[in-house]
hydroxymethylglutaryl-CoA lyase
Amino acid sequence: MSDDSVTLIEVGPRDGLQNEPGELPLAVKQQLVEDLADAGLTVIEAGSFVNPTWVPQMADSEALFAAIARRAGVRYTALTPNLRGFERALAAGADEVAVFAAASESFSQKNINCSIAESIERFRPVMAAAAEAGLPVRGYVSCVLGCPYEGALAPAAVARVTGDLLELGCYEVSLGDTIGVGTAGSMRALLTELLGAFAPAQLAVHCHDSYGQALANILAAVDLGIRRIDAAVAGLGGCPYAPGASGNVATEDVVYLLEGLGLATGIDLDRLIAAGEHISGFLGRPSGSKVARARRSAG
Amino acid sequence: MSDDSVTLIEVGPRDGLQNEPGELPLAVKQQLVEDLADAGLTVIEAGSFVNPTWVPQMADSEALFAAIARRAGVRYTALTPNLRGFERALAAGADEVAVFAAASESFSQKNINCSIAESIERFRPVMAAAAEAGLPVRGYVSCVLGCPYEGALAPAAVARVTGDLLELGCYEVSLGDTIGVGTAGSMRALLTELLGAFAPAQLAVHCHDSYGQALANILAAVDLGIRRIDAAVAGLGGCPYAPGASGNVATEDVVYLLEGLGLATGIDLDRLIAAGEHISGFLGRPSGSKVARARRSAG
């Protein structure tokens, strides 16, 4: 990855759809994943192997992995909270898996029902099994710029869990501003701390646009050398028309930002917009991407 | 103005409402302007003295200036395209006026029906009358990062008209990304050119959020030393729910960005959000500010 290109990690089919009301037909999800690969995305988080009781939207992940026509050069990844989930992901043919921890103790307890330290221990067997199977593992850290229960987080707390995940064997850690409260100022403070200990290539950013700050935060990260960015086509995961919509930043809008900075993404924006409008149609609402809406309006 | 504070120029009552469908009762506009001053805005563009045939939404600007209870320390400003407009603004008691030119010849012709050079000549009598009356004059330049007819603009073309307006006697020039196509990359290129010729204090930025890039563009400008930023409460001027909504950047979201960067704005965000929700209610839609919607959703 050269310094003047950026890899987008498309999380719409998983982090996006997981937070949309209702369950979509398998064929619609399959089409979405295939459309995204056709648009040039090279890393697509397609599903999640968690207990379907907790996340019914992802109950069909096995079937989805079986259905999608794989495109060469694309990694189809999955979230795996534990060894059982990893085994399902491996059997389904995931190219990469991800584990997730939180930067805040309260969020860890409420979201995954254990302490941060316990969550790290829980990942050890997953890491061992992944190493044996030869699958790369990505780490997520949530609430890096603020927690709904604890408010602002100390960058040192984020550095600790990031270091734990990298030490466990994750090849990179995706820093999640889960509730979207971060600003360019807090993003810079966090990354300045982290880049004192880790290489830019070990870090990705995962911004939600709840407060409209996602692109500014991504700009701040890119300025500091980050070249791996999570995003969700059409801003999936939060309806653009609902008060307090808290979806992921829209991949289309990130592509527009990055290309404007002279950073290559390898993505065909028109095809990406079409993919986003297609899935938004199934969800019964316009695309959450402003670029998509502006392009459509400009005819 | 110290380096760690920013002045926001609130353009909602003029640039915002001018682009909203329908005409609001005078009392509603008066309440909006007064609410904005109460929230801490110190420069409020309250109206426009243009031909009411062209902009019926602004036909009541005299009445509005007469109605508003003035708050000490606040400048109530108005747009004045020509001497006739200036005389009306002066009689109405405007504290400051603004003239507007375009960076693109095509836009100038289609928007104000004359060439850029002719528009500058047309402003001379306004400048002379304003100097005599002791009123400061602000200059607007539209389409600085792109024109709907000509596409991308050369920074040198923007520098030319900016220089013309400053030479005429404008105390600052507001650089308008009228159609919102700019990116942090093009904003940086433009400002790098302009700051070779003009001081940061002579320049303001005026970003529209059509492509979702406004906050990233403002961050780019602030990083380069710009400390005067136009914004419209609730993102007035474009319905957040309409495809291709192309409103001004929401003042609330700019305040959130700036305070996060440690830049003081002097604005009470809660009061500002309330002012935006109030006017949005009259327009029959939720606030176009993501910060407002997120705060409301968080309870």
Observations:
- Chain A has one domain: 7-298.
- The two ends of chain A are 35 Å apart (CA to CA).
- Residues 188 and 220 of chain A are 6 Å apart (CA to CA).
- The first strand of chain A starts at residue 7 and ends at 10.
